[in-house]
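lol forgot to send this yesterday, sorry. struct tokens for the thing we talked abt
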């Protein structure tokens, strides 16, 4: 599923969308390569997001609730890591 965070497109895997809670949440995994690592982490450090889920016609402001990565060493060319991100509506 395509998920946009501040306009940057992510191809979400294992997407879990919770619309029933008092605040919306979305959790998903996505791949990050050594080539995209800097852009992705720079975006995530802001922790102030506009989430857009085109398939659901849904947008909401959010911050990070949970974040994890399968590896932290993406400085080596050609490496890929799976990131996990859970965002919660502000």
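and heres what i got for the seq, position by position
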């Amino acid at each position: 599923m395509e998920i946009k965070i501040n306009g940057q497109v992510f191809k979400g895997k294992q997407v879990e969308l919770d619309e029933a809670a008092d605040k919306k949440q979305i959790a998903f995994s996505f791949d990050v390569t050594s080539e995209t690592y800097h852009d992705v982490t720079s975006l995530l450090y802001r922790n102030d997001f506009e989430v857009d889920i085109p398939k659901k016609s849904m947008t909401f402001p959010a911050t990070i609730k949970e974040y994890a990565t399968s590896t932290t060493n993406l400085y080596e060319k050609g490496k890929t890591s799976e990131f996990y991100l859970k965002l919660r509506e502000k």
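The chain has a mean pLDDT of 94. anyway ping me if u want another try
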